[in-house]
Structures are given as structure tokens and as C-alpha cells.
Amino acid sequence: MELTGFPGLEGWRAGFTTRRAGGELSGVLPLLGWEGLPVVRLAQRHGSRVVNILSLEEASRPLQEADGLTTACRGLVLTVASADCVPLVLFDPDRPAGAVIHAGWRGTRSRIARGGVEALRRSFGCRPEGLRAMIGPAIGHCCYRVGREVVEAFLSAGFSPDVVLREDGDGAFLDLPEANRRDLVDSGLDPSRIHSVGLCTRCLAGLFPSYRRDGSGTGRILTFLGSSPHS
Ligand SMILES: [Zn+2]
Fold it and tell me: What is the CATH number of domain 2-138+194-227?
């Protein structure tokens, strides 16, 4: 298991699970002092919809179809699940408020990272230049071979050709974490406040599940952001 703190923030933590957690937060919550806190999950659809959780009551509603969550509420935990797709955490230490985002290639192409930044700005008044971001474990450019139609989808959506690496016959290797990093920079984030863990899920079989490597029966990485009820 890995945990990443946003320094200087009493009670707010973010991180991601490894294979050992078995796709559950049950072993993680006690370590953070978060036992019994509501955990918000999504019915993920590879879209670009971001849901704002504005109260503890909203945290216990039925699963919503979306790929991003934001909140400024203390005392709950936001999660997204992934197994090659890019998990993102955004956090505004001034507000404080934050977001978790699931960005597969479709969501990345639809600029869900920008959607998360926009949702934080609209709902909580967060300034993009004040946000910090973490790009979690995802399939790397070493392993993410895609077909020509995916390459074309990215280029026609205005992404730099630089995110397409090593042209290979009728396909190419795509750098999905980098595409999201650029989307965050284009959205106004300070590049020095964006941390990419740089870990490839497909390469690191002992640490992470990978859809490309193991198929649909593989587990899930849970990426989370939350806080204790009181600072
Ligand atoms: Zn790899």
C-alpha cells in the first residue's frame, strides 16, 4: 500500500492502494483513523462527468454514473477505481477542497482532468494555479499500444503529437499520464505542483492490477482523497 500526504494539511490525505489491499479500503481506513467514514464510489462510465459531493448526506446516495468526484466536506472519503486507466487527485490547500478522477483514454480525450479543475472552481471557488495534483499508477507509454483510431481521436481533440510515442505500424504507443498532465497545465495548474508517480501498472505485476496484462478479471487500484471529521 502507498499513501501520499498533501503536506501541511491537518486531516486531509490522499493515496492509492496496491494489489495487497485487494481492491478494498477496509484495510486502509483504520490506518488513517477513518474507520466508519462514508466512502463515495461511482458507477464509472469512461465519460467526463464530475459529481460534486456537497454534504455528508449526499455521500450516502446511490451510485452515480460519473468518472470524477469533488468535495469540500470533511469526514468522508472519495474514491475511483482503475486498472490501467489514469487516476488523478486534485487538491486545493487554501479552500480546502479536492477531487478524484478516473481518466481512461476516452475520458482523457474528453478532458475530464479539465472538468475536475472546472468543477472545483465553480463549486468551491478554487483557483487552478493554487491546485496540487497527483497522477497515480497507470499504464505507461512503455506498454500502452493503441490503434490508429485512438491516435486520431487524440490529435483531432487538439492534443499535442508529443503524447503519441513510437509509431508502430498501424498503431502507436500513447502516453496517457502525460496527456493528463498537459491537460492540467492547460487548465492553469502550476507544473511544479503536479506530481506523477510514474509507475506503470502493466510492468509492475507484483504491485498493481492491469487490465491489459490480466484481463477483465483483474483487481482494481483504489485512489482516494478524504479527511477526518475534525481538523
Ligand atoms: Zn509498462
Answer: 3.60.140.10
| Locus of grid cell 456537497 | 54
Instruction: Give the Å distance between the CA of 211 and the centre of ligand 1.
Output: 12
Report helix, strand or coil for 21.
helix
> Comparing C-alpha atoms, which of 137, 141, 130, 143 is closest to residue 194?
130
Nearest to 71 by CA among 111, 35, 37: 37
pLDDT in tens, 87-102: 999 999 999 999 999 9
- Interval 218-228: pLDDT, tens: 899 999 999 99
Distance 201 CA to ligand 1 centre (A): 7
CA 30 to ligand 1 center in whole angstroms: 32
Closest CA to 81 of 106, 65, 99, 101: 101
Q: Is the pTM of this model over 0.85?
A: yes
The grid cell for 127 is 483557483
Task: Spell out the domain ranges in the chain.
Answer: 2-138+194-227
Going by C-alpha positions, the residue among 193, 214, 194 that lies closest to residue 202 is 214
